[in-house]
């Protein structure tokens, strides 16, 4: 008698693909937007396994970008990758009217979807958070992902609020940086929302319980490695998926928990590898030589171990 294994739990939708990179925004040495560099970086990321690119997010230094730069970046990257990858535009601000305007401009520029962070600084209550996201979703025809990162915004999108927002036909996904796996599972169990982890150490963990994939900062430098984690899991090679996730721990720790923002460490390592990045914009400051050397060593160890 032969038996078959039960199917692996998979998400009900992946509106922007599985393997997404939170792409840095390349600048020239003079600090200007480097559209050629953005095209080249986007092309590399897609050729190395990314099926979605998130622009103008935290890693993309969104607070320093002008509205004109945001639109130009979306247009350039969308033209570079065509239909090979989804282009998701970060349009979150602390001002609902401004976020709505950015959503409409991203749609015109060719974005496939939107990412909106919880309004920050003003710390609105949950009914106001809900109204903010509904206003964006009502104003634009693109699918919307909610960005839950209370460590930066000061305000959580509570699970009960997520459950209500999931009823909106254009609110389709979440970038989850809340570090609340129980709350995440409650929303997964009660909605059709596609959950993407924004925490690189949770790529396999969230995927294994029904997440749609990831939106990764570290994938700027090792896109193929992170794609291989979810490919191994989908292929039933769970031990290999776990090995690959663990193999990325040293580099992930240096890039994301070293006391420097991930944008700083990512641009330092990309620059050391000769890839498009350029400087960070103030108030961020570049990584020192010692930090860059340590990142490069961890990167080399990971690539040698694969």
Helices and strands in order:
Layout: E1 19-22, H1 35-47, E2 52-55, H2 67-81, E3 86-90, H3 96-109, E4 113-117, H4 126-139, E5 144-148, H5 150-153, H6 159-165, E6 171-176, H7 181-190, E7 194-197, H8 203-208, E8 213-216, H9 223-234, H10 238-247, H11 249-256, H12 262-272, H13 289-305
Parallel strand pairs: 1-2, 1-8, 2-3, 3-4, 4-5, 5-6, 6-7, 7-8
Structure commentary:
It is found in: Cytoplasm. Homotetramer; dimer of dimers. The chain has helices spanning 35-47, 67-81, 96-109, 126-139, 150-153, 159-165, 181-190, 203-208, 223-234, 238-247, 249-256, 262-272, 289-305, and strands at residues 19-22, 52-55, 86-90, 113-117, 144-148, 171-176, 194-197, 213-216. The protein has 306 residues and is α/β, with parallel strands linked by helices. An eight-stranded parallel beta barrel has the order 1-2-3-4-5-6-7-8, surrounded by five helices. Strand 2 (52-55), helix 2 (67-81) and strand 3 (86-90) form a beta-alpha-beta unit. Helix 4 packs parallel to helix 6 (159-165) and helix 6 packs parallel to helix 7. The longest helix has 17 residues, at 289-305. The N and C termini lie far apart (38 Å). Mean pLDDT is 95; it is low at 1-8.
Condensed summary:
The protein has 306 residues and is an alpha/beta fold. It has helices at residues 35-47, 67-81, 96-109, 126-139, 150-153, 159-165, 181-190, 203-208, 223-234, 238-247, 249-256, 262-272, 289-305; strands spanning 19-22, 52-55, 86-90, 113-117, 144-148, 171-176, 194-197, 213-216. Strands 1-2-3-4-5-6-7-8 form an 8-stranded parallel β-barrel, surrounded by 5 helices.
């Amino acid at each position: 008698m032969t038996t078959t294994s039960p199917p692996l739990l998979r998400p009900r939708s992946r509106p922007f693909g599985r393997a997404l990179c939170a792409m840095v925004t390349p600048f020239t040495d003079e600090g200007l937007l480097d559209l050629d560099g953005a095209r080249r970086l986007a092309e590399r990321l897609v050729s190395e396994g990314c099926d979605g690119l998130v622009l103008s997010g935290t890693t993309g230094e969104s607070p320093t970008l002008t509205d004109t730069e945001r639109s130009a970046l979306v247009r350039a990257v969308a033209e570079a990758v065509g239909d090979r990858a989804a282009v998701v535009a970060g349009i979150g601000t602390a001002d609902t009217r401004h976020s709505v305007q950015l959503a409409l401009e991203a749609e015109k520029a060719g974005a496939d979807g939107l990412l909106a962070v919880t309004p920050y600084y003003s710390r609105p209550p949950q009914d106001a958070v809900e109204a903010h996201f509904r206003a964006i979703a009502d104003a634009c025809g693109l699918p919307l992902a909610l960005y839950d990162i209370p460590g930066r915004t000061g305000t959580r999108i509570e699970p009960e609020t997520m459950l209500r927002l999931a009823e909106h036909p254009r609110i389709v996904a979440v970038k989850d940086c809340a570090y609340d796996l129980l709350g995440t599972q409650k929303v997964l169990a009660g909605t059709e929302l596609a959950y993407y982890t924004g925490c690189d150490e949770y790529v396999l963990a969230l995927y294994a319980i029904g997440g749609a994939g990831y939106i990764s900062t570290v994938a700027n430098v090792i896109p193929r490695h992170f794609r291989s984690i979810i490919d191994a899991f989908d292929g039933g090679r769970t031990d290999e998926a776990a090995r690959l996730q663990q193999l990325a721990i040293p580099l992930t720790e240096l890039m994301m928990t070293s006391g420097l923002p991930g944008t700083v460490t990512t641009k330092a390592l990309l620059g050391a590898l000769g890839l498009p990045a350029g400087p960070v914009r103030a108030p961020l400051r570049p990584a020192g030589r010692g930090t860059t050397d340590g990142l490069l060593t961890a990167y080399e160890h990971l690539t040698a171990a694969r």
